[in-house]
Specification:
By secondary structure, the chain is of the alpha/beta class. The protein is built from six helices and eight strands; from the N terminus they run αβββαβαβαββαβα. The N and C termini lie far apart (about 35 Å). The relative contact order is 0.12.
Length: about 220
């Protein structure tokens, strides 16, 4: 049994982890946690994974080490940006994420092509807003959780969104589940949504289910 576990561990992608500063075209210096799996056959698709709150260093680090690492373990290159100004990745900060993506895709080991956006709480909301601005640049959004209204999302025709909100969400987001789904569908999105029974604001993820969805959006 021990030999079998050792073989499994050796076959898993190993990621080189760095925290790096990037000089964006608009003059902003932005930090991001980055991991690129090694030993893959080809380049890794890129996932931007954003944390909640103001997206500061502490939140970004925790998001990277939890949700981000799950993506790395499944063969994704992952970047978790740190807010350069103590604000979430809405509006102007969302455009900074887009600039960061351009720089990241120039790195060896990261595939050039559409990018997955993912986020927790404010990071999920930011992911939906960023995707609304340039949906053709993204594979889809994994929002665990997020809420939305018609002033924050639009222009998502046939765009894949994976949404999970906990039924016991401490911020009361469960009460906005139906309206968020309607808003996304009205914007044209293809929505895979579930109110997770017993889940809180940090909603548990069924990775078997999510991996199936990820496989479909990468095709």
């Amino acid at each position: 049994m021990q030999k079998l576990l050792l073989i499994i561990i050796l076959l898993m992608p190993i990621a080189g982890f760095t925290q790096t500063s990037y000089d964006l075209p608009d003059g902003t210096r932005m930090q991001a946690y980055l991991a690129i799996p090694e030993g893959l056959d080809g380049q890794a698709p890129l996932a931007i994974v954003m944390g909640g709150g103001a997206g500061d260093g502490r939140i970004a680090s925790g998001t990277f080490e939890s949700l981000g690492q799950e993506f790395v373990d499944r063969g994704w290159a992952v970047a978790t940006p740190v807010s350069p100004n103590g604000q979430s990745f809405f509006a102007e900060n969302g455009e900074k994420v887009r600039q960061l993506i351009t720089l990241l895709k120039a790195r060896e080991g990261i595939a050039d092509g559409p990018v997955l956006l993912s986020g927790i709480s404010n990071g999920g909301i930011s992911s939906l807003q960023i995707a609304s601005s340039h949906p053709d640049e993204y594979l889809g959004v994994v929002a665990v959780p997020a809420i939305a209204n018609n002033t924050t999302v639009s222009n998502l025709t046939d765009f894949p969104v994976y949404l999970r909100i906990g039924s016991e969400d401490q911020l009361g987001w469960a009460s906005r589940f139906d309206s968020t789904v309607r808003t996304l569908e009205d914007a044209g999105a293809t929505v895979n949504a579930l109110l997770v029974e017993g889940g809180g604001h940090r909603v548990p993820i069924d990775w078997d289910n999510l991996e199936q969805w990820l496989g479909s959006v990468k095709e």
